[in-house]
Amino acid sequence: MAGCGSWVFLLTVCAVSVFGAKAEIKFTIPVGKLFTYELKRETFQSEFEPLSKLYAGRLYDDPMTFKCNKQNFPDLPEWLRFTQRHPFDNGFLYGTPTSPGKSIIEIYAVNKRSYETARHILVLKVTAEKMLPYQAEFFLKLREIEKVLPSSVQDEIKQDLQKLWDTEALEMVNISNALDQGGRVPLPLAGHFEGVYVKVGSEQYFSDCLQRVLTPEHQRQCTAGAKVKVPGGCNFCSIPSNCITWCKTELFDLTKLEPEPPAPTMGSGILDAGIDFDPPESPPSRDYFPDYMVTVIVPLILAIILCALLAYIMFCRREGVAKRNARTNQIQLYHQHTIHENTDELRNMAGNRGVPPPLSTLPMFNYRTGERASPLQSDSPSIPLIMAQHDPYSDTLPRK
Ligand SMILES: *[C@@H]1O[C@H](CO)[C@@H](O)[C@H](O)[C@H]1NC(C)=O
């Protein structure tokens, strides 16, 4: 038993040093056929900790994310898409090449527990092949792209469609997320799915069942919005989630496509000898004066009028100080004056030291004459606190 274990160990070490160091996987894909490649987490896991299972007897199941791009480019080729729902799920590279060529795809896996990375190289050689002339697209409402891409599920779907098409010679042409074709993001509830479009192709013409899609009756039913079921005898889906939405079925007959018009032939760029160059006539002269009037003169006149109006309002219609004073209540004006005078007094006092204390600090005084009134006299409620003798505003103030 121990001997067997050490052999396995040795083989693993060899396998890791041979494949792990320079993992390069090659595929040859024909144009117009679906290509799917599953990025298996197990594969990368065994690369991150190749000996942990044998040595420590423990196998990790780490979350992983993948980053895929064409070598020396930031992104994948146009036709290739990548999807991974969750770091605990496998990732998928899938798509349908449209033109022959060779692409080298780099796959970086990041272990989200240890933050180790691993790199794989995928070499995809796309070979030219004739497109399948008859193609049909079906919509699977109760599916999500990651659940359809595993080859076992693809085979199940294909088997149903082979019965519907009534032929064995059927090829997957495209599988795409309904979100990529303008579908809506579903509610995050059970029983709501994004939906998947599956396109298949064949050399054989559409079966009678499929030809019903082309009838005017089918179109009328579907535009009416009623829930149209797959017609009897044509319903072959064995697994409910693989059932197609009949109204979203579309048939493509590529034999009926018109050939593209030939590209225009380019000349040499040199005129034939003997022909004189005839320059094009200069265009008729144009009168720009009305345009000038509208774009320059009219706004200018408007601006001048506005300026004049503003100047009149600012300079000719302003109220002067005298006018404002005349309108103001006398008591209010008087109040303002005393504030000004007190301020002046305080300013003067600040100018030199040793001045007598300000009059306003004395218990009772006439602020103009400095005359002190006797406290007895001023206690009388009939005498105002402020004596108003020789006061310019005295006409509004109460008199003694
Ligand atoms: C496959 O489907 C995708 C998504 O709708 C689309 O962009 C792409 O052109 C399709 N490829 C072919 C070959 O039909």
TrEMBL record:
It is found in: Membrane. It comes from the Eukaryota. The chain crosses the membrane at residues 292-315. The keyword Isomerase does not apply. Residues 132-213 form the Sarcoglycan alpha/epsilon second domain. InterPro entries: Cadherin-like_sf, Sarcoglycan_alpha/epsilon, Sarcoglycan_C, Sarcoglycan_N. Keywords: Membrane, Signal, Transmembrane, Transmembrane helix. The keyword Transcription does not apply. Residues 1-23 form the signal peptide. GO terms for cellular component: sarcoglycan complex. Its main location: membrane. Residues 30-125 form the Sarcoglycan alpha/epsilon N-terminal domain. One of its GO terms (molecular function) is calcium ion binding. This is Dystroglycan-type cadherin-like domain-containing protein. It comes from Amphiprion ocellaris (Clown anemonefish). The gene is SGCA.
